[in-house]
Amino acid sequence: MRLIILVMIFITILLSCQTSKEYISIPLSTPPRQYYIPEIESEKDLLKAYQYTTIHIVKWQKWFNLQVGSNYFNYSNK
Prior knowledge:
Blueprint: H1 2-16, H2 43-68
């Protein structure tokens, strides 16, 4: 009888100590607009398209890192 009471107390304490996590969904801000590669006719157009593409990729990376709280650009392997 005493063992049953101790087991019931233990189970009650165990169940009362459990915690549950609630996840909050936060809407994302609007992402940068989509980049369309223009027609490339010369080497100058190619370099200009490359420049705009890399700029646009950096915009997307910054937007994504802000949304997820990443410190990708501040990472150092020391």
